[in-house]
């Protein structure tokens, strides 16, 4: 894959113009693509051989290179790539045909939001498949090394499945005085238990079969092949061998020798190669450190990765790579000393827990990076010079869980490596939280100041009735005056207002000002006012509206409330009684972004809408897009048959305006007609 944020895309489409439009849609959604277009089967094989393709978009209704042919080529070449069928519409027959042809999914450019979702989902799935394949290779390599380590371990270790031996190392065989594993393979584990402990051992094995592992080490009287008995302590843990679930038994001889105790601890909790803590034990340490840092900042963490690890493995081989990793571990211990907790997190990645502030940890990381670049590491019969990348963070009350902390470190390290390596990335949770709070507080202050000091202002954009009705129509648009009196647009402050509960206050302010504007206007006007779902799900709002209209003497038919189609669907049950009450005040209801759903007209069965405002996505470059013209014309015709009026916005050129006349649209709006202004000015 080109990168985490870009897609090597193969697009199979008869229309170059339509292919470009699809690519433009993806780029508008911030999906970076590196496209290749293909139309012929002979060309397809060459592209798949030469180029690293991540995804295929294939036009469904074309015969030059059908989906089935593309899928067959992908299978023949062993490429597990997502193929998305591009449909003209979500027709059940087209969908079934695409799935039967082997498409991973389907989408239509008529619904760009859905297409974006499908592409992003399929890319995530592809990334996961590739990662799983890589992990499978790494797992196989790791298992091979683990088997070598098990075979050479002085500790007596066996893998047991259904009470039978499926593996035992040399030390285990020697402990029980068996000549080779073939003898043990047909010997039940219960044969190793002395008669007096058989019942206890049987219960333990039954519990294990129920996936219940003992909470502590087991003490048994064990028996060798020649009948001699000895006391043993058995540590039981989950394991797998050749992909099969089993349990690992480590047999220890009771001893008060501290050296033996230390060895047992290291076998259980340390990486056998580097003698650093293993991931499991380090997670326990990290969990404790997070608990300790619940009220104040604690230790700092550094995740260190060897740059270009795959190249080093290829050049050195697995054996010499292990020796290189050992040399790296020794280097870290020598430079940082014994007061650091060291963990070998994965093959060539380490996590270090350092008792210092994040500022000092960053300095340590910089020094370590510099020293590593100058160091010559031993790798068996050769030597290695390498660079490292490091991600740094600190354990703070804002850190979250162990997995979240490690995920942050991993993401930062990946960014450093993908940017060329030999870099340090620092993530300060306290500073991030501080900046987020500061940014939010600044916006909250602006919003509250705007409400208290009347720094919000209304702008009006004409909504023109093509039939030339005398009443003027305007959409009300809100702006916020900044400290320097420059205007801030709603895209910047509305999300903050929604998040922190100010949106209904803003809605009420806009409504009050709109009613005042209607009352003070010298001409008969109707104002279109956008309302948030928070307001339109508030049971008290209809009563507030009725009182406002009554006290101002403004009739409800001079107001039209705009609500998005998607919000009507999401909050249908809460909005239905509210909108019914609003209609009782004679106000109009406008469904905004209409046509964006799969079956938009079904909404009109449940909500008493007066007007439909066509989704602006259909209006872009309408003059050159026959499909969108067909869609808009279909909406207009169906709406008129139902007695609904239609508004089309984003009229940006004369060609689009001409189409509106031909389609008999009721209202038009856009900068080609008139830009928003702080005054209600009729279009000449």
From TrEMBL:
Q: Which residues form the GGDEF domain?
A: 297-429
What CDD domains does UniProt report for this protein, alphabetically? EAL (cd01948)
Judging by the UniProt lineage, the source's domain of life is Bacteria
Q: Which Pfam families match?
A: EAL (PF00563), GGDEF (PF00990)
List the InterPro entries hit by this protein, alphabetically. Answer: CheY-like_superfamily, Cyclic-di-GMP_PDE-like, EAL_dom, EAL_sf, GGDEF_dom, Nucleotide_cyclase, PAS-like_dom_sf, Rev_trsase/Diguanyl_cyclase
Q: Which residues form the EAL domain?
A: 440-684
What is this protein's record name?
Answer: EAL domain-containing protein
């Amino acid at each position: 894959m080109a990168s985490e944020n870009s897609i090597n895309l193969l697009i199979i489409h008869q229309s170059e113009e339509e292919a470009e439009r699809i690519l433009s849609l993806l780029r508008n959604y911030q999906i970076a693509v590196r496209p290749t277009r293909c139309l012929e089967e002979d060309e397809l094989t060459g592209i798949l051989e030469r180029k690293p393709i991540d995804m295929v978009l294939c036009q469904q209704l074309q015969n030059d290179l059908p989906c089935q042919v593309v899928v067959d080529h992908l299978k023949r070449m062993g490429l597990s790539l997502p193929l998305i069928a591009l449909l003209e519409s979500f027709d059940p027959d087209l969908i079934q045909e695409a799935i039967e042809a082997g498409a991973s999914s389907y989408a239509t450019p008529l619904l760009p939001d859905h297409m974006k979702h499908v592409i992003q989902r399929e890319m995530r799935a592809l990334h996961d498949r590739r990662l799983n394949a890589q992990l499978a290779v790494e797992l196989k390599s790791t298992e091979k090394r683990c088997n070598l380590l098990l075979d050479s371990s002085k500790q007596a270790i066996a893998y047991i499945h259904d009470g039978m031996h499926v593996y035992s190392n040399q030390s285990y065989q020697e402990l029980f005085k068996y000549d080779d594993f073939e003898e043990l393979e047909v010997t039940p584990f219960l044969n190793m238990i002395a008669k007096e402990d058989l019942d206890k051992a049987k219960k333990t094995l039954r519990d294990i079969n129920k996936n219940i592992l003992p909470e502590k080490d087991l003490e048994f009287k064990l028996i060798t092949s020649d009948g001699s008995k000895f006391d043993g302590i058995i540590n039981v843990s989950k394991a797998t061998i050749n992909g099969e679930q089993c349990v690992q038994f480590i047999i220890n001889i009771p001893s008060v020798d501290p050296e033996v105790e230390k060895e047992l601890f290291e076998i259980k909790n340390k990486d056998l190669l580097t003698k650093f803590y293993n991931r499991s034990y380090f997670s326990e340490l990290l969990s404790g450190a997070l608990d300790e840092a619940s009220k104040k900042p604690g230790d700092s963490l550094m995740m260190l990765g060897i740059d270009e690890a795959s190249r080093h493995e290829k050049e050195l081989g697995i054996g010499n790579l292990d020796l290189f990793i050992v040399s790296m571990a020794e280097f870290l211990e020598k430079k940082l000393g014994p007061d650091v907790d060291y963990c070998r997190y994965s093959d060539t990645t380490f996590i270090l827990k350092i008792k210092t502030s994040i500022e000092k940890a960053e300095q340590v990381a910089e020094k370590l990076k510099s020293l590593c670049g100058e160091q010559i590491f031993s790798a068996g019969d050769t030597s290695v010079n390498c660079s490292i990348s490091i991600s740094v963070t600190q354990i703070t009350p804002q850190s979250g869980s162990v997995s979240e902390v490690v995920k942050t470190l991993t993401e930062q390290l990946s960014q450093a490596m993908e940017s060329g390596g030999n870099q340090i990335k620092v993530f300060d949770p306290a500073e991030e939280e501080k900046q987020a709070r500061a940014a939010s507080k600044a916006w909250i202050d602006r919003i509250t100041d705007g409400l208290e000091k009347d720094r919000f202002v209304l702008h009006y954009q004409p909504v023109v009735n093509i039939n030339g009705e005398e009443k003027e129509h305007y959409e009300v648009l809100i702006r916020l005056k900044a400290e320097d009196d420059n205007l801030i647009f709603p895209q910047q402050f509305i999300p903050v207002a929604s998040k922190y509960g100010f949106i209904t206050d803003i809605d009420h302010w806009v409504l009050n000002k709109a009613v005042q504007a209607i009352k003070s206007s010298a001409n008969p006007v109707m104002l279109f006012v956008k309302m948030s779902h928070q307001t339109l799900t508030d049971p008290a709002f209809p009563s507030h509206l009725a009182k406002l209209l009554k006290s101002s003497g403004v009739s409800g038919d001079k107001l039209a409330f705009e609500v998005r189609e998607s919000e009507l669907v999401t909050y249908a049950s809460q909005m239905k009684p509210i909108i019914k009450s609003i209609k009782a005040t004679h106000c109009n209801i406008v469904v905004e972004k209409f046509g964006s759903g799969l079956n938009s007209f079904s909404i009109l069965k449940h909500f008493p809408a007066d007007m439909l405002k066509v989704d602006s996505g259909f209006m872009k470059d309408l003059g050159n897009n026959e499909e969108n013209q067909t869609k808009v014309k279909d909406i207009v015709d169906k709406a008129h048959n139902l007695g609904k009026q239609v508004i089309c916005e984003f009229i940006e050129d004369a060609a689009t305006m001409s189409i509106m006349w031909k389609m008999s649209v009721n209202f038009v709006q856009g900068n080609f007609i008139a830009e928003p202004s702080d005054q209600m000015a009729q279009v000449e």
